[in-house]
Amino acid sequence: MFIVFEGIDGSGKTTLSNRVARELRRAGLTVRHVREDGRLASPVSEGLRRFTRDPLHLALTPVAELLLYAAREAQLLEEVTRPALAEHDVVIADRFLYTAEVLARFGRGLPEAEVRPVLDTCQRGLQPDRVFLIDVDPAIARARRRASKLLAKDRSAPSRKGLTGAGLQARLRAGYRALAAASPGRWSIIENTDVPLDEQVTRLVEDVLRVRRGEAPLHLAGQGRPIVPVRSLPEARGRFLRRLDGWTVDEPGLAAWFLAGMEGQDVEARRALLAERCPELIAHGLAGLTSPAAWEWRHRLEAAAPEHVLASLTDDASDAPEAWHLRERWETRAPEAVATSLTGLDSERAWLMRDRLSRSAPEPVVGSLSGLDSERAWNERWRWLSSRGGDAAFEDEGVARALCRSLRGVDSERAWEWRERAMAVAPDAVLRSLEGLDSPRAWALREQHAARAPKAVIGSLTGLDVPAAWTLRETFGVACEEVLDSLTGMDVPAAWRLRTVLADTWPSASVKSLGLLAATARGQALTLELLERHPHDFALLRQAARTVSQVEEEPRHGVA
């Protein structure tokens, strides 16, 4: 029996497929999982997987990408899967050729007539007996991935596919659902948002055992939630918090992640419930917050999660007196995190601390020079580069990425010379370093790579109110949610027009892009209109819940 688990990144298919494999073994079956614990059993296939993930290869065309994904699965099929089917009761695959099909057709827009012959050649008639589509809201899947990466202290570069932006995951989800609808006898859609993991595993195992006995499979599709309109912002906040409460026991990390940036007594009560189990995620969620409650949480969590507490010293919190006290307490114990927390600061106090940290945390010190174009900043960059071998060090990806971080927003001739050298090993980092730049060189680079790395390119437009920026935003708005992130807080006609045009495509991002404007009458009206049309959009509920806090803070900030 051949079973395939499919779904977007972060859907939970790897966790579920591994648990199902273990339970089937306990039931007395011989089971071969061809991607046990997330690693493909074929070294050749695993190598191809790493190649397609590497952002160095962002220039891959859709056809080349299809052939590489198909080759990965073809190798796994011939080397591992087909032999295993002859020797085991059950063979489980975490992804199959459906992944290549969905990415090519729905993600990249290749015609089915071009994709199908490639996949048929690789498949050679083999069909899974059951396909479990692990279905989840892309916003929730993204939160799971980010929380997992933060807890694992994974500082690796984003995947090449990730450079496309959040919109890709929405298109892939729609593609998987279309394949499932076309073959309902083979596919089952498993909603993996609010069902406890143990219950989900039990249902899947029972389904497999029934099919092996020749019985009809279980009806596993979720019933869906009734459509109940949201009539006010406080009601949206209550609905959001109830969803979080449902995750507090079975998936506390997800609940903690979604508390990020939130304030209010109801939120503080939930932070208190989660702080002991998820201190790193709760600390991470304090980023930029400056309320007395936020500073109290930093003091309470610094012993358990010092690096994450220091990482929360961003925006208005970065130069507060309490921030400096925190840095001084951890300067010798967590020098890298302290150095990173100095990013963009140009005060004498910041420079004195960098001088003290330059030996114990040289790379984070250099990375903290983001946006600084002074001679003092360049002397620090040159000193570190010389210690790594001078110009030859640009061949080291880690060096190139650190230098690109330090060059964000810097438009001098020296910065461009370094970008040109870094492009060969860290092109995505170079694109991110263009943040806020409005020079001909910056626009030429954006236009050259926008089609392959729209997320990185669009992210560099933050705050730019020039014709070229609006042209790019309009070009990629329907496909790339990050277009709206790039105009956060902008109160110009072009920004409002894009929010209106893209509101139903990216409802939560439209509200998030309001920034403090969410507390205005116009901002609240847009939020309520979208809640009426998209009452089940969890990310939208979260943004609406944040708006409640902003409205309450309106007199303090003077929002009109």
Automatic annotation (TrEMBL):
Entry similarity comment: Belongs to the thymidylate kinase family.
Gene field: tmk
Name under which the protein is recorded: Thymidylate kinase
One Pfam family it belongs to: Thymidylate_kin
Catalytic activity field: dTMP + ATP = dTDP + ADP
Source domain of life: Bacteria
Task performed by this protein: Phosphorylation of dTMP to form dTDP in both de novo and salvage pathways of dTTP synthesis.
Keywords per UniProt: ATP-binding, Kinase, Nucleotide biosynthesis, Nucleotide-binding, Transferase
Entry EC no(s): 2.7.4.9
Keyword Ubl conjugation belongs to the record: no
Source organism: Corallococcus caeni
